[in-house]
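Annotated sample (chain length 370).
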Amino acid sequence: LAQNALRFSKRLAPTAGQVPRAIGAFCVPASVDGRRSLRDSISGKATWDGPKYAGYPQHVKHIGSMTKDQIQKIIELALKMKADPHAYTSALKNRTLLALFEKPSLRTRVSLETGMTQLGGHCIYYALADSPLGKKESIFDTAKVVSRYVDIVTARVNTRQAVDELIANASVPVINALDDYGHPCQMLADILTIVEHRGSFEGMKLAFVGDCQNNMTYDLMRLGCVMGFDVTVAGPADKGFNVEWSVVKECEELMAKGTGGSFKITNKRDEAVKDADVVYCDSWMSYGIAAVERQERFKALSPYQVDATAMKLAKPTALFMNCLPAVRGEEQTAEVLDGAQSVIYDQAENRMHAQKALLVALVNGFDYKV
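Output written by the structure step:
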């Protein structure tokens, strides 16, 4: 049997430049590139994909992975999709998203699955608790295999290393749906919400207060530097709450491109929120933080709670934002979270609209039009 299989495989395997030939019920694809390895020579994925835009695949490691022009195109597309969703029901027809989840989430899962359905595609939710990434099978192999099946991948994982390895080895676009270093999908939802409420982000000041050693803090800083507005972050000077030096360097590199954005780091809440157009905070007990740390964290973070006093220091037209989940009486008071300046539910809804636009842009190109 082994000898017969070998003789059969030799008859089927085309040489470089050979035209596909039918053998019985089989049609054998030809390899047109003698440099391709045998393992890649008969994949049907390219046939399924069809023509791709220049630069494909583009991956989104964090918000700084995209240019200002690309982000603006995503926001413009998201606004059109939100205004006329039925016009885009075939934008990702028959396309499949693989959504890898190591961390739980309400908004990320529901918005991705609903969004893909509205675009005419399909979302596969894959819980990594069932098969941990990089444990039984290497991330290298996982990325290679799923690239043969699906059109795009999102990964909500614990570490940036997992996202980096997926991006390095996938041949379809990979989106970081949250790790310990960034949250680009939330950034797109936030800037969409800001544009809807303010009309523009130009010349804006955004203040983030709380834990500055945080994926949200990092991507908000990058967002300001990419899009051209000012971001001030304020948090405890204690070790464990400080912005990582690598993020500072990244933001300096983004600023050097001349978009007009800036960032500032301070330990004073009131300094950060003074005259802010947007006041932002995030949970003090994010996923992955041990419950035993709660008391010490709250002691350090309590001076950074966003309350009515803090909001009065901001501009009268300031927006209050929180990416959720939020706890009333912790990172902000109930008065602020449920107040007239709060846009938290618009943010949550806009996760879906912004992500729909991002998915379409990465699969079909940033200049996609219906």
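Annotation: The longest strand covers residues 96-101.
Annotation: Residues 5-24, 29-33 have pLDDT under 50 and may be disordered.
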